[in-house]
Amino acid sequence: MAGMTQTEFAKRMGMSQQTFSSRLKVGKFTQEELEKMASIVGAEWKSGFYFHNGNRIE
To answer: Given CB 3.0 to 4.6 Å as the disulfide criterion, which of 17, 31, 56, 58 pairs with 7?
Structure first.
């Protein structure tokens, strides 16, 4: 969606493509890294609990 290779994305994250690929497979990223990823692709990272009744904890 971002129009860049995984290698370019990893470089912008400040890590090697191999490291990024390994961490992507297990989904091991910090909150700060997820926010940086979102910024790189022009998005916003949000996390929280969203309940069916409309309540949410962010």
So the answer is: 17
Structure confidence at residue 2 as a pLDDT band (50, 70, 90): confident
Which positions ≥6 away from 19 have C-beta within 8 Å? 10
1 pLDDT above the threshold of 80: no
- Cα(26)–Cα(50) distance, integer angstroms: 24
pLDDT digits (tens, 9 = 90+) for 28-50: 999 999 999 999 999 989 888 98
| pTM for this model (two decimals) | 0.76
- 53 exposed, middle or buried (CB, 10 Å; 0-12, 13-18, 19+)? exposed
Contact 57, 47 (CB under 8 A): no
